[in-house]
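Subject: sequence -> structure tokens, single chain

Hey, anyone have a minute? Need the predicted structure for the following. Not urgent.
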Amino acid sequence: MATTTSAHRMTTQRTTSGRTFLRELEHRGETFAHIGPNWFASVMGTGIVANAAALLPRQVTGLHEFAVGVWVIAALWLAVLTAITAVHWIRHTDNAKAHASNPAMAPFYGAPPMALMTVGAGALLVGHDVIGQPAAIVVAFVLWSAGTLGGLASSALVPYWLFTRREVGVEHTFATWLMPVVPPMVSAATGAALIQHLPAGQAREAMLLACYAMFGLSLLASLVIITLVWGRLAYEGTGPTATVPTLFIVLGPLGQSITAANLLGNQAHLAIAAPYSTGFKAMGVLYGAPVFGFAMLWLVIATALVVRAARQGLGFSLTWWSFTFPVGTVVTGTSLLAKDTGLDALAWIAVGLYVLLLAAWGTAAVRTAHGALRTGTLLRAA
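Reply:
Had a minute. Here:
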């Protein structure tokens, strides 16, 4: 009798444990269903920490090793997040389509291409220490190609979708609208390092001019959107508190364009003859210095608005990753300006901005890990 009771108890415990396990799987599956393209901003924000460290005009002991470690984290996270996204589209197709038709989420389809290219650029800058130079070149080309195609698609399709939606009003004009049009600028900046690995002649010249074409595509579209964002702020105010951190996204096309102008200018002599190569080289500083000034102005304004929002109860969300990649592009742009001009003041400004980037990245990473892994609330809210 005791044996029967014990067996019954064990069977009941197994059944209860099985039901608990099934409920946990169901819970995880439901949480998994809410993964959106905005999660790739965490890859961008992590990758730029490594890339910016490699380009800093002032280096300290251990910084390179730190950059390599961060790049490995970004690369692994990109692989994991890509796999999760693929499964998400297969198992939760309706939710994925809902993201694509959501005015607040659709612009973030520019994030995956930028994540790919950020990790690809890092492979050449620091990742070669881990995978070797030949593999780093292949990885850089593959990720740049995939990111460029995806970025060109997002820069055309997402604005078209927004233009044909009647429910989008002036009050919905957020800095996130920049996300789908910035990837071509990232292509221009990261494509510069690939020029020297192409055959001399037509291939290099085509790559250089294609990068400048994408530079113009993204720059002009970004200027239009930044103007709209400025107008919306003036006429409608900052909007929901949770969206205020996204104002930092404006720094993305500004910093990335400075980076692209200088990197492309430094490589122009490999692809095209003078006087064009000389003009492109000079453009790095002639363009970069004025845009750097506006970037500093926007940094001050955006910071003041975030402080104001914090006093109004700004809580953590994935929008906090807006403090990372855009600031990182300003670090890289400022670093290159410092190297090309030789100005110590710019070099120390780049270092100061990098310290801010590290603080922002550390905060966003820790809070994201806590909200996703420990509580799960961030995944469900994403």
